[in-house]
Write a structure and sequence with these properties.
Layout: E1 3-9, H1 21-24, H2 29-42, E2 45-51, H3 55-65, E3 71-75, H4 84-93, E4 97-101, E5 123-126, H5 130-147
Parallel strand pairs: 1-2, 1-3, 3-4, 4-5
Helix pairs in contact: 2-5, 3-4
The protein binds 1,3,4-trihydroxy-5-OXO-cyclohexanecarboxylic acid.
Length: 149
């Protein structure tokens, strides 16, 4: 059966395309997800995309993923830098999660240099715009391939 991947996006990422395009680029979230579906299909994977501006809904989406997903590509937006609840949710569900950012958070304000989540993720990709998501998906699928057998 195809691998099932949750592509989870946090606050303000619904505004991609119009939000600070100099930082986040011109692509909309729908375009990014569409591109990911094509890449995923090529590798025998299926994507379900969820976006929420609400921290608890992101926690719920991670809990729900436990029942059907093989792994998660997760751009937690600003919650990256603050959320112990999301960190605990990632630890609790035990799924491989790749922390993903469009911008290079380390080249930006100091408060973006710290992630509450990186330590419980299998990897982190940042700085490549929409390509970050593709790299995260590829990395996650390679990770899952290595895990099998
Ligand atoms: C972001 C980086 C975060 O610092 C910021 O709060 C976002 C987007 C990124 O994709 O570059 O909302 O996660």
């Amino acid at each position: 059966m195809d691998r099932q991947i949750l592509v989870l996006n946090g606050p303000n990422l619904n505004l991609l395309g119009t939000r600070e395009p100099d930082v986040y680029g011109a692509a909309t979230l729908d375009e990014i997800v569409h591109d990911l579906r094509v890449v995923a299909a090529d590798r025998g994977a299926e994507i379900k995309a969820v976006q929420s501006n609400v921290e608890g809904e992101l926690v719920d989406a991670l809990h729900d993923a436990r029942t059907w997903a093989d792994g998660v590509v997760f751009n937690p937006g600003a919650y990256t830098h603050t959320s112990i609840a999301l960190r605990d949710a990632i630890s609790a569900v035990g799924l491989p999660v790749v922390e993903t950012h469009l911008s290079n958070v380390h080249a930006r304000e100091e408060f973006r240099h710290r992630s509450m989540l990186s330590a419980v993720c299998v990897g982190v990709v940042c700085g490549f715009g929409p390509t970050s998501y593709r790299m995260a998906l590829d990395g996650l699928l390679d990770h899952l391939d290595r895990d099998v057998g």
